[in-house]
Amino acid sequence: MIDELPERRRQIFLMAKRDGLSYRDISEQTGLTVKTIENHVFRAMQSLRTKDFNAYLFFFA
User: Fold this and answer.
1) Contact 40, 8 (CB under 8 A)
2) How many whole angstroms separate alpha carbon 10 and alpha carbon 19?
3) In the chain, which stretches have pLDDT less than 70?
4) 23: domain CATH number?
5) Which of 16, 31, 39, 61 sits 20 to 30 Å CA-CA off 45?
6) DSSP state of 51
7) What is the dihedral of CA 10, 32, 34, 55, to 10 degrees?
8) Are 48 and 56 in contact (CB under 8 A)?
9) What is the number of alpha carbons within 13 Å of residue 56 lying toward its C-beta?
10) By C-alpha distance, which of 58, 4, 11 is closest to 37?
11) Which residues form the domain of 17?
12) Are 1 and 53 in contact (CB under 8 A)?
């Protein structure tokens, strides 16, 4: 479940998928590099898939 993700990863994932912010916008807001943002979103999606939360992925796609 999304709530089970590490806090920072969850926040970045929601900013990207729920709020529709670009990786660049998230990078500017968090002070992290765009590559780090990409990695957080990728790993969040991997984690959600692994835990069989395809409904969440569908909702945020």
Assistant:
1) yes
2) 12
3) 52-61
4) 1.10.10.10
5) 31
6) T
7) 0
8) yes
9) 19
10) 11
11) 2-60
12) yes
Q: What's the confidence (pLDDT) of residue 33?
A: 99
What residue type is 8 in one-letter code?
Answer: R
Whether the CB-CB separation of 22 and 12 falls below 8 Å is answered with no
Q: Return the pLDDT at 19.
A: 97
Task: Tell me how far apart the alpha carbons of residues 18 and 24 are, in angstroms, rounded to a whole number.
Answer: 16
pLDDT of residue 42: 97
- Give the dihedral sign, CA 47/2/4/39: positive
Cα–Cα dist 37/55, whole Å? 23
For 37, other C-beta atoms within 10 Å of its C-beta total 23
Phi, psi (deg, nearest 5) at residue 17: -90, -45
The number of distinct structural domains making up the chain is 1
